[in-house]
Design brief:
about 190 residues, mainly alpha, Ferritin, elongated
């Protein structure tokens, strides 16, 4: 990966933020899809969840090919790579958002990375928010999640990125926008 160490670190942080948003949205899409009664919407959400896993795999593969694997190791050692499991290190607050922010330790004692953004931890508290939710609430929640995914891609695209990574992100961002538009239209029909 060409570029200065600072550029490479910025690219790694941006890409890992996208990967974290993909993990989060994958989980949320399954959770919401399982609760929807409309079979077409259910199928869309479950299929879209699989697509997010595919996107994550593409990004992780190109990162390894571009030599960012070493960057990942250094970020992991420093505690600045987002959790791969899709869960935050600190629990959600009553609002469903994680309490600790950048530089503040979670229950594990590790500090949140400087790029940590609570909205990327969308699934924190999702189950309680959706427990008895109707289709309109489910779709509104899904649209919020799609907004978060779009923001992660927009933020990553503003960073220095090697061309192969940029091409993949651009392609994926088009799909994320299409998914957002579909979810928004479905929410508007349900309202």
């Amino acid at each position: 990966m060409a570029g200065s160490s600072h550029e490479m670190q910025g690219a790694g942080i941006a890409i890992y933020s996208v990967i974290q948003s993909l993990v989060e949205s994958q989980e949320a899409l399954v959770e919401i899809g399982e609760k929807l009664e409309d079979m077409d919407l259910k199928r869309f959400f479950l299929t879209e969840s699989l697509k997010r896993a595919e996107f994550r795999g593409e990004l992780e593969s190109v990162l390894n090919q571009e030599g960012v694997g070493a960057l990942r190791q250094s970020h992991a050692a420093a505690g600045s790579v987002p959790a791969q499991s899709g869960t935050s290190e600190s629990g959600p607050s009553e609002s469903g958002q994680s309490e600790s922010g950048p530089g503040e330790p979670g229950p594990t004692g590790r500090a949140r990375p400087a790029f940590y953004r609570p909205e990327y931890h969308f699934v924190d508290g999702l189950r309680s928010r959706l427990r008895d939710a109707g289709a309109d609430t489910l779709l509104a929640t899904a649209e919020e999640g799609e907004d978060v995914a779009k923001e992660a891609y927009d933020n990553a695209m503003s960073a220095y990125l090697p061309e192969p990574v940029r091409e993949i992100l651009e392609s994926q961002a088009v799909h994320i926008q299409e998914s957002h538009d579909f979810v928004k239209a479905a929410r508007e029909r349900a309202a």
